[in-house]
From TrEMBL:
Species: Nyctibius bracteatus (Rufous potoo)
UniProt-listed Pfam families: Na_Ca_ex
Single annotated GO MF: symporter activity
Transmembrane regions listed in the UniProt entry: 12-28, 35-58, 70-93
Catalytic reaction list: Ca(2+)(out) + K(+)(out) + 4 Na(+)(in) = Ca(2+)(in) + K(+)(in) + 4 Na(+)(out)
Subcellular location: Membrane
Similarity section: Belongs to the Ca(2+):cation antiporter (CaCA) (TC 2.A.19) family. SLC24A subfamily.
GO cellular component terms given for this protein: plasma membrane
This protein's encoding gene: Slc24a4_1
Domain of life: Eukaryota
BP GO annotations: intracellular calcium ion homeostasis; sensory perception of smell
Protein name: NCKX4 protein
Domain Sodium/calcium exchanger membrane region, first and last residues per copy: 37-149
Length: 152
């Protein structure tokens, strides 16, 4: 049964893996070592594209099921992006690399805040509509703070 599931998973993921293989240089090979920044930028662009589609799909599913965007974002999107970071931190902590686990946790949040929020807001205020302000929809702020305090 496991062999069949692995084959199905491979068949379903093969097109995506092929596209990523064709568009992102593999820096682990000596031929592509110099292109590490290209790999980083293309990987970030692919993550942005995947994130856009993930948010879009969760929004459509929430709308279809009558679940507010705030709840869908806090539960599915936040958990879906935090659980892999948590698992990676647990794995390296078990290997005795506690400093790497902590830096992974802090680094991913810093990257999310500085790049995930900073780049779009910077583009909006500096390039698209120079001197404008960014309005923040804070309808879900109370839920977010309550969940954050509850988890702490």
């Amino acid at each position: 049964t496991d062999g069949k599931m692995d084959k199905i998973k491979w068949i379903l993921s093969w097109p995506l893996i092929f596209v990523l293989f064709c568009t992102i240089p593999n820096c682990s090979k000596p031929r592509w070592e110099r292109y590490f920044m290209v790999t980083f930028i293309l990987s970030t662009l692919w993550i942005a594209l995947f994130s856009y589609f993930m948010v879009w799909m969760v929004t459509v599913i929430g709308y279809t099921l009558g679940i507010p965007d705030v709840i869908m974002g806090i539960t599915f999107l936040a958990a879906g992006t935090s659980v892999p970071d948590c698992m990676a931190s647990l794995i390296v902590a078990r290997q005795g690399l506690g400093d790497m686990a902590v830096s992974n946790t802090i680094g991913s949040n810093v990257f999310d805040i500085l790049v995930g929020l900073g780049v779009p807001w910077g583009l909006q205020t500096m390039a698209i509509d120079c001197g404008s302000t960014v309005k923040i929809n804070s309808k879900g702020l109370v839920y977010s703070v309550a969940l954050l305090l509850g988890s702490v």
